[in-house]
Specification:
Layout: H1 2-74, H2 78-105, H3 107-114, H4 121-127, H5 129-146, H6 151-177, H7 179-183, H8 192-217, H9 233-257, H10 259-278, H11 287-337, H12 340-367, H13 369-376, H14 381-413, H15 417-442, H16 444-470, H17 477-500, H18 506-528
Helix pairs in contact: 1-2, 1-4, 1-5, 1-6, 1-8, 1-9, 1-10, 1-11, 2-4, 2-5, 2-9, 3-4, 4-8, 5-8, 6-8, 9-15, 10-11, 10-15, 11-12, 11-14, 12-14, 12-17, 13-14, 14-15, 14-16, 15-16, 17-18
Length: 530
């Protein structure tokens, strides 16, 4: 019965995570069509700050509250569990409030000095309250999960995703339709696109509030005890120390995994501006025009890259990440039992399945980058044209990113989570050096190439450490080589067929080309992997 309960909870969480990913795509694609490259540049600066904060609260605070609550209840110590709940709400609630205030006060200097995008400040200021909501959501989810109640987490995730779509898109549409009314509440000189981005970010804040409210509506999983039965002050100090002890390493690991986003935020716009000033003729500008328009053009290019290319890039790893999450419980069980045969079988199966999806998808994105962007963002042809070369490079990076996801899950399941932090630090270092060297010289393709090198480093490092730590020797060369050859055949078929269908509507031509590529890939890979 206990295993059935755990399995049911895992299924709830996986379904809600998949729904949240789908809702994220539903949010980003029409938002990009509304805001365009310039607006997405402002939006990406604020949302890029949101992602590390969100991951920090979801993983760090959530894990600390859930783990300590589960341990206390396993011992039958209801008083300690209630003390953990009170301490977590107070500590993380105060930390979230302080974070919200600091982000609001320092939004303008942060956007000007670090992000090199001062017009993004209103969006960052409107995002600031979401820090508190994220912290409180993490605590409430952790308490419910510690009591083995996964449904509140699942429902709140879906509520938050729906709220992001409804509030974010509605407010952005209103701001773009009535810019004069919105700009009365913003600093003078704020561009209409920046106002639209700020409205969309405010929608994200409202969605975080909706997720927190949803959790608050569930009954308390740990009853409030009378004052006489509560933990004494000495025990409460121990509880607070235990929460921090568990929080800090998990939060550090979470922050490291989001370093690539922060690196792009800190170096992307600055590098693009430097490149425009260095070779203005490459962007159709004179030296005098570049001096005044470099920052605006850099923001447009960065918005096209982050809003279009990165959105498409993230779709495939979001799917393959579910494979890694699915194998984690079984791999952890085999690892705990010391069953190397079972561990190897699970590892080989999940890597083959990931390659089966990632290789043709990544190669297809590489060769059909421009048609895919024109299909998804038909109302933004200039942004699609700008982002297409970078997405071609990111198509190859899709393969490396997707193949890294199951390796990370299996390393965590086998007790080597610290190695994933080490690998991501190396990858972030490669990303930082690549951005600094390549973006001023090659523009958006430099940002994409540095991402490719980053995740290639991550894949090689994680594969090496996985084999070294577990002692498993994965027999994958033949199957992955076969999938790669068949994936190339799939991509070549789609690429060669697409121009021949120019007489058809663009969307029909693209879908038919992809279908024909799939018709070549599926039987070929079936024969090759026998």
């Amino acid at each position: 019965m206990r295993q059935q309960t755990v399995l049911r909870g895992a299924v709830w969480l996986m379904i809600s995570a998949a729904a949240a990913k789908l809702l994220g795509a539903v949010f980003r694609i029409p938002l990009t069509a509304m805001l365009g490259g310039a607006g997405m540049g402002y939006f990406s600066c604020a949302y890029g700050l949101f992602l590390p904060v969100f991951a920090l609260s979801v993983t760090g605070m959530n894990t600390a509250a859930a783990a300590l609550t589960a341990q206390a209840l396993a011992r039958g110590d209801t008083a300690e569990a209630e003390g953990i709940a009170r301490a977590a709400r107070r500590m993380f609630g105060r930390a979230g409030f302080a974070g919200s205030v600091l982000l609001f006060l320092f939004a303008r200097p942060l956007c000007t000095a670090v992000l090199h995008n001062p017009h993004a400040a209103p969006a960052v200021m409107l995002f600031a309250p979401a820090v508190w909501f994220c912290c409180m959501s993490a605590v409430l989810r952790g308490l419910h999960e510690g009591c083995r109640q996964m449904i509140p987490t699942a429902i709140s995730q879906v509520t938050e995703g729906i709220g992001r779509v409804v509030f974010g898109l509605l407010l952005a549409a209103l701001a773009m339709r009535y810019p004069d009314r919105v700009q009365r509440f913003l600093p003078a000189g704020t561009p209409p696109e920046a106002a639209g981005a700020a409205a969309a970010i405010f929608g994200v804040t409202l969605s975080a509030a909706a997720g927190t409210l949803t959790l608050a509506l569930f009954p308390r999983c740990i009853p409030r005890l009378p004052y006489a039965q509560r933990l004494p002050a000495v025990r409460m100090r121990e509880v607070r120390r235990a929460l921090l002890t568990l929080l800090l390493p998990v939060a550090a690991a979470s922050l490291v995994t989001n370093l690539t986003t922060l690196v792009d935020l800190a170096t992307g716009l600055r590098g693009l501006s430097a490149g425009i000033l260095r070779t203005p003729e490459r962007f159709g500008l004179s030296a005098d025009a570049a001096a005044t328009e470099a920052d605006a053009l850099a923001n447009f290019c960065y918005g096209a890259y982050s809003g279009l290319a990165v959105t498409v890039f993230n779709l495939v790893p979001a799917v393959t990440n579910m494979l890694g999450k699915a194998v984690l419980p079984a791999f952890a069980e085999q690892s705990a039992q010391g069953c190397r045969t079972g561990m190897q079988q699970h590892a080989e199966d999940v890597m083959r399945r990931t390659a089966f999806i990632a290789v043709p998808a990544g190669l297809g994105i590489c060769v059909l980058a421009k048609p895919i962007l024109q299909f998804l963002f038909a109302s933004r042809p200039l942004e699609a044209e700008t982002a297409a070369p970078a997405l071609s490079v990111l198509g190859i990076a899709v393969i490396f990113t997707a193949m890294s996801c199951p390796l990370f899950s299996m390393m965590q399941a086998s007790g080597h989570a610290g190695d994933t932090v080490t690998v991501m630090l190396y990858g972030a270092g490669v990303k930082l050096i690549g951005n600094l060297l390549l973006i001023p010289r090659t523009g958006l393709c430099g940002a994409a190439l540095s991402t490719l090198l980053c995740y290639l480093t991550v894949l090689i490092g994680s594969a090496y450490l996985f084999v070294r730590r577990t002692g498993l020797h994965l027999r994958l060369f033949r199957s992955i080589a076969a999938v790669s050859v068949c994936g190339i055949a799939c991509a070549v078929t789609a690429c060669m067929l697409y121009p021949q269908l120019s007489g058809l509507p663009q969307r029909a031509a693209l879908l038919l080309s992809i279908a024909c590529g799939g018709a070549v890939y599926l039987p070929a890979v079936r024969l090759a992997c026998r």
